[in-house]
Design brief:
2 domains; 10 helices; Arc Repressor Mutant, subunit A; two-stranded antiparallel sheet; 200 residues; single chain; 2 strands; mainly alpha
C-alpha cells in the first residue's frame, strides 16, 4: 500500500504486527517532539518503540514511509475535528480549533508542513478534504465546490506552514484571525467576524 512519501508494506494482520506498527507510529510522534525529523534515525525510532531494527523494515521501507503513515492519520484526524470549518455559523471557531491543535502539536506539524515532505503532505491534505461531505456543497454560486475546497485547503496549509516557520511569534488566536479573514470568510461568506476575531 502506498503512503505519502514512500511505500508502506502490507497491512499487518496479527495482533503482534499491529502492536509493532502502533509502537513505531507512537515512537515517531514522541521523537518529533524532541528533534527535527531529518535528525532522526531508524535505530532511534525502533529503540523508542521497543522493537527490533529489522522489525521496522517489516512495516516500512524508509522513515519517510513511516512519517507518511503518521501524517495520513494525523491529517484525517485534524480534518474530522475541523469539519465545520466550511460552515458559516462557526467557521471562526473551527479555524481557531485547527490553529490551537497545530500549536499544541507544533513539533509534529512543523515536521509535516515545514519539512522536506511539505508538498506531499499538502497534496494529501487536499486529497482527504475533497472526500469530506462538505466538499460537495456549493458555497458560492460562481465557485465550483471542488475548486473552493482545493483553494481553501491549500491556502490554509500554506498559511499554517508560514506560521510554523516564519510567523511563530503569533499566537494561535492571532493566526486563526488572519486565516479566517484571509481565506475562510471570503469562501463561506462569513462577513460578521466572531467576537474573538474582532478582538484581535
Amino acid at each position: 500500500m502506498a503512503t505519502l512519501s514512500g511505500t508502506k508494506l502490507a497491512e499487518p494482520t496479527d495482533a503482534r504486527q499491529v502492536r509493532s506498527r502502533k509502537a513505531l507510529n507512537a515512537a515517531l510522534l514522541a521523537l518529533l517532539e524532541e528533534k527535527p525529523f531529518d535528525q532522526l534515525t531508524i535505530r532511534e525510532i525502533s529503540a523508542r518503540a521497543g522493537t527490533g531494527y529489522a522489525t521496522f523494515f517489516r512495516h516500512y521501507e524508509t522513515k519517510e514511509a513511516l512519517l507518511g503513515d503518521v501524517a495520513s492519520e494525523e491529517i484525517g484526524g485534524l480534518l474530522a475535528m475541523t469539519l465545520p470549518i466550511l460552515d458559516q455559523a462557526n467557521s471562526y471557531d473551527s479555524t481557531l480549533a485547527l490553529c490551537g491543535y497545530v500549536a499544541e502539536h507544533r513539533a509534529l506539524w512543523s515536521a509535516l508542513l515545514a519539512g522536506g515532505a511539505a508538498a506531499i503532505v499538502r497534496n494529501e491534505f487536499i486529497r482527504q478534504a475533497r472526500l469530506l461531505p462538505l466538499a460537495a456543497q456549493q458555497q458560492k454560486p460562481w465557485l465550483p465546490a471542488d475548486l473552493g475546497v482545493v483553494h481553501g485547503t491549500g491556502a490554509m496549509i500554506d498559511g499554517l506552514a508560514w506560521w510554523l516557520t516564519i510567523g511563530t511569534d503569533l499566537s494561535a488566536e492571532q493566526i486563526a484571525t488572519i486565516l479566517h479573514r484571509l481565506i475562510i470568510a471570503p469562501l463561506v461568506g462569513d462577513t460578521a467576524p466572531r467576537e474573538a476575531a474582532a478582538a484581535q
